[in-house]
Specification:
Blueprint lengths: L1 H6 L12 H6 L5 H4 L1 H4 L3 H4 L10 H15 L12 H24 L7 H10 L11 H17 L3 H18 L4 H6 L10 H30 L5 H13 L2 E7 L5 E6 L5 E6 L4 E5 L4 E6 L6 E6 L6 E5 L3 E5 L5 E6 L5 E6 L5 E6 L4 E5 L5 E5 L6 E6 L5 E6 L3 E6 L5 E6 L5 E6 L5 E6 L4 E5 L4 E6 L6 E6 L6 E6 L3 E6 L5 E6 L5 E6 L5 E6 L3 E6 L1 H11 L1
Antiparallel strand pairs: 1-28, 2-3, 3-4, 4-5, 6-7, 7-8, 8-9, 10-11, 11-12, 12-13, 14-15, 15-16, 16-17, 18-19, 19-20, 20-21, 22-23, 23-24, 24-25, 26-27, 27-28
Length: 546
């Protein structure tokens, strides 16, 4: 009361002392509570985020501990609890990083290429020699990862040193010298025959001439002001848009597997699951002869680029060479499993075959000798295509990989990775630097050999792509065949769709384009041959008549 009396300016003692203080404080109190509310909500959300803290009582307990630590002068800042999802994500990220580093380390290690040497190394390392269902390439990859793991743990050098000492001791006990010790190492090349060496020289000479002609034509188109490349492409694409069904013929009693035009366009060859190949005259698709000789289904057929000889591949592990009259000229035996595709070298002197024994082979068409047995794919080899110059050959297989080989040296110069499923079709463009591949991932990939990478990916079909062909004159368009019962034409300039060839009632297994680019043949599991013609061909015929 004394404090109230001193602060009260009213000298009247009889006045009520309790009433004035509220009356005097009342105007002061409203601004005091009005200032904190807008300020208080601002710093509180900026404090340690409450959403990451445990709920209910744990949050209050943590807040109390933080307040106590602030009173004690702890400047370490708030401690956050990491959620289970965040911890799992960090562990997953760290594991992915370690796996990447492990693969990078493994890629730098030298691993034996011979399966026998791989098994021996695994045995010395105390690992299982083989696992159930494991193949050669998988076993080699497993050895690589084991060695990379030992290397990361710092035990590889010591372990390999001990193994080398043991091997040296075994060689000394056996009385072997240094030469025998060196023979244990698997060579990274296989010594070829004299016939292969001669073939490599011939291929090199011919390819140089053809490459010079191709490059000279390309320079002339580029430098000649009268050459209008865009107009040529537009004319070719306009003709491709006009492709229409010209003829349909039953090819056999069982599904058809392959088709091929002759170099002059007068004949068409087809093969079927009956094991019989047939020759048809163009453009009427009239039967000329039947090529009977395979014991099992025929898988592919190709005409020679220089004459009327025909090569067929079969599941009986053989390839055969015929003439158009149906006479058997040669048989090529050596593959250990069924054949998939066959292809002629541009010179017509050599024949390439692919097989499910994971190899492709090169044969001399005249003598029938096997010139080259080439490994390199970890799964079955399916498609094969020769470069227009004859210097290169490209193979593709069920390992989702395409490889480019130099026939002059025998080296694998490019490994084209990009498909996620088996690659079934492959074709070189006449321009010499574009390569097209198609497979079970329903896409067609265009590769630029100059840049060594994928140039464009076409989401081409709704089902797997069974075959692919470039237009053979200039490569202005390409054609893909698919199990979605259609064949499609694509522009080589911007890889846009030009025309859909629909009419088959089952899977389309093969496609080929005539040498003049005016006719396309497709065969299917519906047992029919369909011939598609361009209106440009009709215009050319009318001009010839005039």
């Amino acid at each position: 009361m004394e404090i109230d009396e001193k602060e009260n300016p009213n000298p009247n003692p009889n006045s009520n002392s309790t009433t004035p203080p509220p009356a005097q404080i009342a105007p002061i109190e409203p601004p005091i509570p009005l200032i904190p509310p807008p300020i208080a909500p601002i710093p509180r959300p900026l404090a340690p985020i409450p959403s990451v803290r445990p709920p209910n009582g744990e949050t209050a307990k943590k807040t109390t501990e933080d307040a106590a630590s602030d009173e004690d002068g702890d400047d370490s800042g708030p401690e956050y609890e990491v959620s289970e999802e965040s911890r799992l994500f960090r562990e997953k990220k760290e594991k992915a990083k370690q796996d990447f580093l492990m693969k990078q380390r493994a890629a730098a290690l030298a691993v034996p290429t011979n399966d026998k040497a791989v098994r021996s190394r695994l045995r010395r390392l105390g690992e299982p020699v083989t696992l159930f269902g494991e193949r050669e390439m998988e076993r080699r990859d497993r050895l690589r990862m084991i060695m990379a793991k030992l290397d990361s743990e710092g035990r590889l050098d010591t372990l390999m040193k001990v193994l080398e000492e043991e091997e040296a001791a075994v060689n000394v006990e056996d009385g072997g010298g240094e030469d025998e010790g060196e023979m244990v190492e698997y060579p990274f090349y296989t010594e070829g025959s004299t016939a292969l060496l001669k073939a490599r020289f011939e291929i090199a000479k011919e390819s140089v001439v053809k490459a010079a002609v191709r490059l000279g034509r390309a320079r002339r188109k580029r430098d000649d002001p009268d050459e209008d490349v865009d107009a040529e492409i537009n004319w070719a694409l306009d003709g491709a848009k006009s492709f229409a069904l010209d003829c349909s013929e039953i090819g056999d009693v069982r599904p058809l597997a392959g088709c091929s035009f002759s170099c002059d366009g007068k004949f068409l060859a087809t093969c079927s699951l009956t094991g019989v190949a047939k020759i048809w005259s163009m453009p009427g698709v009239n039967s000329v002869s039947s090529l009977k000789g395979h014991a099992e289904r025929a898988t592919d057929v190709k005409f020679s680029p220089t004459n009327d000889q025909v090569a067929t591949a079969s599941a009986d592990r053989t390839a055969k060479l015929w003439n158009t009259e149906g006479t058997l000229l040669n048989t090529y035996t050596g593959h250990l499993d069924r054949l998939a595709r066959v292809a002629f070298h541009p010179s017509g002197k050599y024949l390439g075959t692919t097989s499910f024994d994971k190899t492709w082979r090169l044969w001399d068409t005249e003598t029938g000798d096997e010139l080259l047995l080439q490994e390199g794919h970890s799964r079955s080899v399916y498609g094969l295509a020769f470069h227009p110059d004859g210097s290169l050959v490209a193979s593709c297989g069920l390992d989702a990989l395409a490889r480019v080989w130099d026939l002059r040296s025998g080296r694998s110069i490019l490994a084209l990775e990009g498909h996620v499923k088996p690659v079934l079709g492959i074709s070189f463009s006449p321009n010499g630097y574009h390569l097209a591949t198609g497979g079970e991932d329903n896409t067609c990939r265009i590769w630029d050999l100059r840049k060594k990478r994928s140039l464009y990916t076409i989401p081409a079909h709704a089902n797997l792509i069974s075959d692919i062909k470039f237009e053979p004159q200039e490569g202005y368009f390409l054609v893909t065949a698919s199990y979605d019962m259609t064949a499609k034409i694509w522009s080589s300039r911007d890889f846009k769709p030009v025309k859909v060839l629909s009419g088959h009632e089952a899977k389309v297994t093969s496609v080929d384009v005539a040498a003049d680019g005016q006719s396309i043949a497709t065969v299917s599991h519906d047992r029919t041959i369909k011939l598609w013609s361009s209106k440009n061909a009709e215009k050319d015929k009318a001009m010839d008549v005039d």
